[in-house]
Amino acid sequence: MTANRRPWSAPNDRELLLWKVGRALTLAFVTAVLVAGGIFYGLVVLLDFKEIDTAAKLDAKTLFDLVKLSFGVVAGAGALVALVVAYRRQRVDEVGAHREATRLHTERFSQAVDKLGSDSPAVRLGGVHALAGLADDAPDDSLRQTCIDVLCAYLQLPFTPDPGEDLAHQEEHHRYLAFRKVRHTILRLIGDHYRRPQGTHRSWQGCDLDLTGVTIDGNMDFTGAVFSGGMVSFVGAVFSGGTVDFNSAVFSGGTVGFRGAVFSGGRVGFRGAVFSGSTVDFYSAVLSGGTVGFRGAVFSGSTVDFNSAVFSGSTVDFYSAVFSGGTVRFRGAVFSGGTVDFDRAAFSGSTVPFSSAIFSGSRVSFNRAAFSGGRASFGGVRFSGGRASFTDARGRVPDGLLAAANTPVSATVILASAWLPPVP
User: 207, 237, 266 — which closes off a domain?
Assistant: First the structure.
């Protein structure tokens, strides 16, 4: 995900590419002459001079004017030289200031990383806050990204599980709680910084966030965050507790990956989120516990992939969601337990395929959903258990649903009355 990131020295190398003084002066002088000549020619054309009197004699006044003009040209050339030299000095000063800022940043960075390796939870906590502050004050985006990467890498490190609260393990239990506080602080700081508008101080929006394989058992708040660039990865992450909020977030660019993630507890919320131009990947995710909520979310242009996802115990809520554009895929998904709610959802423009999905134990509800456009398809779906309800659904029947519901199955499939064939 970060293979194409620039090395630390890249910004300095780029800023030091200054032209030699002679070349810069020559180019500046030629440019000045061309501009002056263009202005003179324009004035001649504007004032409509038809001819110049070649018979006129050079009198004292004209000679004096030529002398003044010569001195003016010399003064202008001197000013041009001073301007070029001042510009180069300013650029060199800027590069020097950047180098000094980078040196100080590197020293503080090394100290903060050393604190993260301390045996003391309090010292580690100080290192976490130091790295977050360094990311805020980093002289360029590359150094900011490095600080974020280190915090993410800390979360990816293996940690000792809770040994229990019995007296025999009381000391280990307290140590576990102390280090868990460090992890939860990182999760909180990441959420705080991603909620800040991009371009403002302390905003990390647009940076990469690699939480691959991380166990998230605390709170993270991305409420109102805008994911319009960078790559955010929760691939293989385990959501086992706490609350992770993407409520009212906007996914308008970049990629957010939950591929293979396990939702086994806690709550992950996308309430009112807008998916308008990004790729959000839940491929092969396992939703076996807790709650994943998309209530009122708007899918208007993104690609959201639930292909081969397993809904085996969670409560997944798409209540009143709007599918008005883009693609939301459930191909090959397995609904074997828990509850999946599409009540009052509006399918008006998206492509939403449930092709080859298996409904074997979940309660899946499309009650009062509106199928007024787009393409929701159930071709090859197998209903072998649980319950799938389309009570009071409106609009045209989704492609392949009647054929799938009329096969000999033991599941209960409740269709909208308007879709049932007339009683003979």
Answer: 207
